[in-house]
Amino acid sequence: MACHLTGRYDVNRNATLPADDYALVKEWAESIADLRLQGILFHNNFSEATCAKYGNEHISFIKTAFPSQYSPNVYRYFIYRDFLRQYAHRIAHLFVTDVSDVVVLHNPFIQPLFTARPGTLFCGDEPKQLDDDWMKAHGTHLRSRIAGYARYEADFSHAPLLNCGIIGGNVRLMEAFVEKLCLIHQYYNHDNHTAYTGDMGAFNYLVRTTFNEQLYHGAPVNTVFKAYQVDRTDCWFRHK
C-alpha cells in the first residue's frame, strides 16, 4: 500500500505536487503489476479518468480525504490504520511504502527470510547513524513533547538510521505498529509547526523503543538508500 496526497506544499520535496500526474507513481505501480502482486494506492486528487486508465487486477485506487492537520508523510498512517481496522481480516501480510521513489524488485512474501520470521518487522534503512544532524533537527518537536525521546536518541545514537519508506510484516504486527504510530502523531505531533514533519522521528522512536527485538532492516529488504542502484536485483525493494 502507498499514499499519493497532493494539493499542499510538501516540505520534503520543497514543492506542491501536481494533482493528476500519474508519472509520479507509475514505476511503483508497474513493478507491483509485473510481479502479479496486489497494490492499493490511496489518493486524494487523481481524476476518474486516470484511475480508470491505470487501474487493473493488480492496482486499485482508493480516494481519500486529506485534512489539513497533518503533512502527507504523517497522515498516510491514519489512512492505513483506518483501512486495516476494516479489512485486516482479509490480509495476511503487507508492506506500506513510499510511492514516488520505491520500486518492488521481488515478491517479498515468498522470500525465505520473510517466511522464516513471521513475527518480524521489516523496514528500510540508510547508510547513516541515528546521531545525524538532520535527524536531530527532525526530532526537535517530538523531543520537546515525549519525555523519553532524548534518552532514546542517546541509547541508539550509533544505531543505523531506519527509513519509514519501506515497512512490512504480518498483518497482526502491522496493525499493532500502525495503531501505536498514529497515537504518537495524534498526541505528540498534531501541533508540530516546525519545518520538519516528525514522521522519521516518530518512526525511529517507536521501532527502537517497542519493536527493536523484532526488527530486520537493510539488505535484502532494501537497496542502499539514495545510491540509485538501478542495476541491483538482489533486494526486495529499491529505494532511490
Helix content: 25-40%
**Overall 3D form:** globular
Q: Which runs of at least 5 residues are low in confidence (pLDDT < 50)?
A: none
Strand order of the largest sheet: 6-9-8-10
In short:
The protein is an alpha/beta fold.
Describe the structure.
- Helices cover 36% and strands 21% of the residues.
- The model has no long low-confidence stretch (mean pLDDT 95).
- The strands form four sheets. Strands 6-9-8-10 form a four-stranded mixed β-sheet. A three-stranded parallel β-sheet has the order 1-4-5.
- Helix 3 (72-87) packs across helix 8 (171-189) and helix 8 packs across helix 9.
- It is α/β, with parallel strands linked by helices and 240 residues long.
- Helix 2 links the parallel strand 4 and strand 5.
- The protein has helices at residues 26-34, 48-54, 72-87, 112-116, 133-138, 140-145, 149-155, 171-189, 199-210; strands spanning 2-4, 9-10, 15-16, 39-43, 59-63, 93-97, 102-104, 121-129, 160-170, 215-217, 237-239.
How is this fold's topology laid out?
Layout: E1 2-4, E2 9-10, E3 15-16, H1 26-34, E4 39-43, H2 48-54, E5 59-63, H3 72-87, E6 93-97, E7 102-104, H4 112-116, E8 121-129, H5 133-138, H6 140-145, H7 149-155, E9 160-170, H8 171-189, H9 199-210, E10 215-217, E11 237-239
Parallel strand pairs: 1-4, 4-5, 8-10
Antiparallel strand pairs: 2-3, 6-9, 7-11, 8-9
